Amino acid sequence: MALERVDRDSSGLVRPQLGLAFAARHAETLLVLLVLGVALIIGLATAADYGLSTDEFNTDEYGPKALAWYTSAFADRSQFETVEEYLWMYGPWFQMLVAAVQSLALASPITVRHTMTFLVGLAGLAAVVPIARLTVGSWAGLTALTLCLLTGYLYGNLFFAPIDVPFLFAMSWSTLAIVLMVRQGAPSWRLTLMTGLATGLAIATRTGGVITHAYLVGGMSLCALEVLLRHGRTGYGQLLQIALHTLLVILIACLTAVALWPWLQIGNPLTQFLEAYRHFGTLDTSFEFQNWGRLTFTDNVPAWYIPGQLVARLPEGFLALLLLGMAVWIGAAGSWIRATFSALRRSGVAGLRPVASELAGARAVLVVSVAAFGPTAVLILQGSTLYDGVRHVLFVIPMLAIVAARGLASLLPFLRRLPIVPVALGGAHTATILATLIILHPLEYIAMNGLAGGVPGAYGRFDLDYWSMAAPEALRRLEARIDAEGRFAGDSPRVLLCLAWRENLAGVMFRRNWIAETHLDKADYLIATERWPCADGTTAVLVDEVKRFGRPFAWIYANSSRAR
Fold first, then answer.
1. Would the pLDDT of 11 be above 70?
2. What percentage of the chain reaches a pLDDT higher than 70?
3. Read out DSSP for 531-552?
4. How far is residue 230's CA from residue 347's CA, in Å, rounded to a whole number?
């Protein structure tokens, strides 16, 4: 009591003093807030450092046109007619939100977009804290959050993955809402509404969001099983309540998705959804890229592609804890299976009651397990088209971090015996990761772990800078070069920024009155990127490179045919 003093202010009201006892009781929460606060400050301070990723050119156009669909009372159809083909098969809620904030002119449109994407992504990561606490225990939330923020691949994408990050947000909060529902057993009306809205938002972001209803139905079925085991026939009223709340979640989710996704509004919503689902399930996109040094085609990736990418891109500590967490849960599953067979041998079907009750009691953990591994399994079984690292399953990394937190929790009894060594190793590992991310900035998402050889060893063996994030830095270097040389006085240089078919839009990243050229032979300078090496086979002369750890990711060329 002496450590928690209270004083009275000038009005006579009691003013609590935060003492050591309060800090001890709420240490994890305070540290979570500290980590989130530091990440928020860094993110806001650096949002302007990133250029537009290739997909952001499209979504920046999609947002205002989707917004016009609503503001024109559903008369303006430009989002279906004048945006990149099939973009309307993604839900536009986040793009509309960005367009609305951009219209306030608070900062440059690019900075606003990256700030909004980062804020939504960080909010999505914040959801892992309560999920981990509820399914693993104390300190698991802080562990999972920290692992996510130290994963360069995830952290970097938080700024400029315009569809994958909002999907991460929606999936994380949907999973939290479902975990809360299954823990309650007989959920409240408020929680039912929240779960319906959250899962509807996931569906209205990307068709894959429908998998949240698999989590829901599976978890609520285990709730029903527990009721049957405890109350038998007398529990029919509670079973009816579980079924009603589950159906209401699905109904609210469908209504939310239709309200937020114009594509579902222009025809039969179910037919429209299935068309979009089939489109993305069998995406007609085929190009080659490097995967662990092997030439791979997007429409024929090996079954181990996603696990292999995660093994290369997650930090070593994350991977080690993840494997340990998986071993713990697999061991628990194995014990349950053995107990089930043992009960069958002893007492037949009647002996399954205790193991069935144990299964029902673990439903929240099972939901998180399915959320961590289920989507990857579905993509593998479907033989889906995959590319750009694992950005399409970015949303599973927070769930994997919760599994990793379980791995750390299993180690704590041993670590407490000799805490200095693990603390020192963890501190050194964290410091190494932070130093790497600082060096890579704003290319944090190309970070690779030691198993892949780090960035130098992974170069040429993996698809690294597929968003062409090195291009903005090359532009800044070209600005300095032209200023130093004093060329183009009173004139504007023609610069070709190689971004596939988006060269004519690249001028939005120029900070000078330059001309965004689309023809190589008319350009004064060319900026080539790792994915788009447009200067290969030309007579252009290399004048500068953007490097990280000695490896180039963007090249600046002067067009010799237009030398002045």
1. no
2. 95
3. S--TTTTS--EEEEEEEETTEE
4. 19
